Sequence to fold (366 residues):
Amino acid sequence: MSTLPPDGSGPAGSPFVRACRRLPVPHTPVWFMRQAGRSLPEYRALRGDGSILAAIADPALAAEATLQPVRRYGVDAAILFSDIVVPVEAVGFGVDVVPGRGPVVERPFRSADDLARLRPLEPEVDAPYVAEAVRLAVAELAPSGVPLIGFAGAPFTVASYLVEGGPSRTFTRVKSLMHAEPDLWRALLDRLAAMAVAFLSAQVAAGAAAVQLFDSWAGWLAPYEYEQWVLPATRQVLAAAAALGVPTILFGVGTGELLGLMGTSGADVVGVDWRVPLDRARARVGVGRAVQGNLDPSLCLGPWPVTAAAARRVLDEAGTEPGHVFNLGHGVLPETDPGILAELVSLVHAEGRAGVTGADRAPVAG
Ligand code: CP3
Fold:
């Protein structure tokens, strides 16, 4: 196993944080959503068969799972090993994460009575293991200067699990709630926004150098629904996170028609899935925002020439203006060969041009 990549400039001066802030970088930074997970044999060995929520509640295990992909791939950022349902589980809402399925809720959110089951999160009391895992991981990362990304689920995406009771393809109940009971919907999103702020603040206080808000399923909404019933709570969370002094990233899947609105969310970086080429995404999110993405995770299954060609297309579409963090368009698929992701990191470091000093003298090949 290789050692952590040397850097020396510290998290705040790292290529990742600089790219989030649209500053020039020595190379295009890259990390992968779901980089800590089942595609890594060392993760499967570390995890064993217990529940993922129990693994997350073990700070030494969570810190180790956070560091594994940094060692293996040489990525430019670590992301905390945790989950978007940790805060609601920690206040006793009754959530389990079922392997192969995702979060499942014992008693779904159905009426104003259920608001009482969503009391405010006190991170140091309800989930002290989160800050402890961050501290352990950050201490190990310190010599390399590799930043740790903290994260939370955005209010809409967490609400979708609470209201639907589990993963959904149609989001019928959650849409019905927002249209039919807008006051209750706003009250629910307010609670979840406050919990996300508390969760992110604890991670930043413990040493996280950036935060990502996962609004994975926002793309199932029409722009007017997103703007009216989701964006205000999202803005609240991002403003509170920005006040902590770290860059903020907002990500969702299938958000092509929402990118303009996401560009007004206050996020420094807007995550983009593989459906929208990054040059178009940049135009949609507007000036003053960086973009993150957007290689199709399916194309990381290889063979390597397929992955390499698709990665070069992403780098090409990212252009030469500062403000590109290379990532996949969604999470790493469990069947991905870790060797391909390691090669991908090398390719991005060698060939990325967005904001890279001297980029104009060395155009992207192929
Ligand atoms: O490497 C990382 O990205 C950090 C860890 C991380 C996990 N979940 C660990 C995890 C992160 C950032 C998340 C966020 C998360 N969790 C999201 C947003 C990201 C996205 O994919 O859109 C969502 C929607 C969840 C809810 C959730 N948790 C799902 C849908 C699943 C998958 C269920 C399955 O088995 O397919 C989980 C479980 C989960 N969270 C796993 C991991 C590594 C896999 C199961 C395991 O290892 O036990």
The longest helix spans residues 182-205. Residues 11-360 form a domain with the TIM Barrel fold (CATH 3.20.20.210). The radius of gyration is 19 Å. Confidence is low (pLDDT under 50) at residues 1-8.
